[in-house]
Design a protein that fits this description.
By secondary structure, the chain is an alpha+beta fold. It contains 28 helices and 18 strands.
Length: about 675
């Protein structure tokens, strides 16, 4: 009433007149602390329109004596059901928490209105007390509809609704929890019988084929066991066997422990690397392409090979691989080597499985040299091997396009993952050779690396090339030598021929060169008869590294390359060979002169030169001698003019015919 006057809708006198003469209703008279109330709907229509224009549509407030008006969410009920645990240790599902809280709140609202029966019956037209529960049931049912429904699950029947309220007030909040959560079906099975069911279902020797068989056998045993009772339906057995706390016990014995591990063990949520060379994964698998070959009896055979791959986890780029008959040390060695040559950087971490070849890599310290961390993946844990997922997609998306794709492994279930055996058998003669199959695989790897990454849509190789890892270490030639070159246990002696050794029954010759193909004669003359430790790449013997063994360990000396071979006969010599021979001959003569003159200079400085004591120094044969010099030397000294004459005479002598053989005298007679 006060708002009508203050807002100017009506004057006080007009309201009083309307109450007396115009039918305006006044539900409550004004008192000292209680304002008077006017029923809006009883006002003239133009006043109602003005009130609605200012305050909007008006809704009748529910009476405090109505169940809706008394309804309040019971926080104690909400807390109780959130913390309540079932007999199996689990909490209630959220939908049941909401349902039970609404029911408890509504039952308390019913009790509130029932506490003042006089007001309650008056608000309902002074109904008799015997009509209270039907009225309550009708009102409770009506609450589930309307613009603001209360979605309870209380019974509609007045008698059952009253019983539910009585039990709720007697037992408390627990009364509303459904009995189905207490596993009452399994309670029909005695504890001893439960153990029998569990052990019988997990028996791997005398297997139980189905729950129907288990149900039949149980009832047969129950008929002769006094403490057991027969079960009417198979569902009771199913509920027990597949209950959460029971299923985890028998699953490993019926399906295998590894499958049980996959189902019940905790799984980490992991984040993939955000930069290249953070993690390299490596693993071997069957190369899913058939090829043909001829066996020892010259018959066509069909075969497959193994491939070992090294992959960058960030970009899924296949970095290096090796194809062989088995996943062994050699396959792993060459795959890592190819990956490192491709990447040009060392990875921060490599992850690999526990195959035998890796144990040899670990013992050789290759893996420790290759990356900052070398970590074995957990055995029998497919989820931890990201590369297996890549293998699967590589096979399904790329290799599957090939005519003679083998299909995926035997665990695949879809028919699309299997080979068309009829077509395959009809075209065995069209199978590629081993080399053709290797070329096909190399091309398909390249296709995979250039395909868009499933997460970014950017080609994998582009992702890899454009990424930068600030902690990745650049690979130097010394890293390649240290990790992938083989060290010969037996030292090799340097001779005028160079460095020569035999590996796998093949002889290899090497020389130290400078300025292209010119031998480094200065190095050669300083290292004749010196022993070297040789490091070489088994897959590429075009270059070797020479080390000296010292007290402090191996000391690097130089690099030697495959020795250049030239034709002896001029008929087969190429143009460069004649010049090459001449250049080396000049270099050889110059080296002889330099050595000879250096020694003569030292002799003069120390007073040991022959000419300082009345003797003559011989000329350097083939360089300083001439016909005139030879005649002069022969006349003046009556001795042979050339050491070559003596060497030739000795080679023609029959030493066995003379007891005291003097090569010098023999040469004089021969002349």
């Amino acid at each position: 009433m006060k708002e009508l006057i203050n807002e100017g809708f009506m004057t006080y006198d007009a309201i009083r007149y309307g109450i007396s003469n115009k039918g305006i209703k006044q539900p409550r008279q004004g008192r000292r602390y209680t304002p008077a109330l006017i029923a809006i709907n009883s006002l003239p229509s133009h006043i109602i329109a003005a009130v609605k224009a200012k305050y909007g549509e008006l809704e009748a407030a529910p009476s405090k004596y109505s169940i809706r008006g008394a309804y309040r969410e019971d926080q104690q009920a909400l807390d109780f059901y959130r913390k309540h645990t079932l007999p199996n240790g689990e909490f209630l599902a959220e939908e049941y928490i909401q349902e039970y809280t609404i029911n408890a709140s509504l039952l308390k609202a019913i009790r509130f209105v029932l506490n003042d029966k006089r007001s309650f019956t008056a608000s309902r037209g002074k109904a008799r007390a015997s009509h209270i529960w039907p009225a309550i049931a009708n009102e409770v049912t009506a609450l589930k509809s309307g613009p603001d429904p209360i979605l309870h699950t209380l019974p509609k029947n007045p008698r059952r609704l009253k019983e539910r309220l009585d039990l709720f007030e007697k037992e408390g909040y627990i009364n509303l929890v459904s009995g189905k959560f207490c596993n009452k079906n399994t309670e029909k099975i005695p504890e001893e019988a439960k153990l029998w069911l569990l052990t019988r279902w997990s028996d791997n020797v005398k297997k139980c084929a189905s729950l129907t068989q288990l149900f039949r056998e149980y009832n047969e045993k129950a008929s002769v066991t006094p403490s057991w009772t027969k079960i009417k339906t198979e569902k009771t057995i199913c509920n027990f066997i597949y209950s959460e706390e029971i299923q985890s016990l028998w699953y490993a014995h019926r399906h295998g422990e590894l499958i049980s591990k996959e189902k019940f063990s905790y799984i980490h949520k992991t984040l993939m690397p955000t930069m290249r060379d953070s993690i390299w994964y490596s693993d071997g698998t069957k190369l899913n392409l058939y090829y043909q070959y001829l066996n020892s009896e010259n018959k066509r055979c069909v075969g497959t090979l193994q491939v070992y791959e090294v992959m960058d986890a960030y970009s899924e780029v296949l970095l290096g691989y090796h194809i062989s008959k088995s996943e062994d040390y050699e396959a792993q060695f060459f795959a890592y080597k190819m990956a490192l040559n491709f990447a040009k950087y060392k990875p921060f971490q490599i992850s690999y499985d526990n195959q035998g070849g890796h144990k040899k890599l670990e013992s050789s310290d290759l893996l420790k040299k290759l990356a900052h961390l070398a970590i074995r993946t957990q055995p029998y844990n497919g989820r931890s091997k990201t590369i297996e997922n890549v293998f699967s997609r590589f096979q399904q998306q790329v290799l599957k396009q090939e005519t003679f794709y083998t299909g995926q492994n035997i665990t695949t279930k879809t028919q699309e993952s299997r080979i068309n055996q009829e077509f395959f058998n009809a075209n065995l003669d069209q199978l590629p050779t081993e080399q053709e199959m290797r070329d096909i695989y190399a091309a398909r790897r390249e296709e995979w690396n250039n395909m868009p990454h499933p997460k970014t849509g950017i080609p994998r190789i582009e992702m890899y090339r454009s990424s930068v890892n600030p902690q990745a270490v650049k690979v130097e030639i010394w890293d390649i030598v240290d990790m992938f070159y083989v060290t010969r246990q037996k030292e090799v002696t340097c001779t005028a021929w160079g460095i020569t050794f035999t590996e796998k029954k093949i002889k290899y010759d090497f020389m130290v060169y400078k300025d292209g193909n010119m031998p480094d004669l200065d190095w050669l003359q300083k290292n004749i008869d010196k022993k070297f430790v040789v490091k070489f790449d088994p897959s590429d013997l075009s270059m070797i590294f020479l080390y000296e063994r010292t007290a402090a360990g191996l000391k690097y000396n130089t690099v030697a390359s495959t020795k250049v071979a030239i034709h002896r006969g001029k008929q087969e010599q190429e143009e460069w060979e004649a010049q090459y021979i001449k250049d080396i001959e000049i270099a050889n003569k110059q080296a002889r002169i330099n050595r000879y003159e250096k020694m003569e200079q030292l002799q003069r400085e120390h007073g040991t030169h022959p000419e300082d004591r009345g003797f003559r120094s011989p000329a350097i044969a083939g360089i300083q001698t001439s016909v005139a010099a030879k005649r002069k030397a022969k006349k003046s000294s009556n001795v042979l003019g050339s050491i070559g004459v003596i060497q030739k005479a000795v080679s023609n002598a029959d030493i066995m015919q003379e007891e005291d053989f003097d090569p010098y005298e023999y040469a004089k007679r021969a002349m």
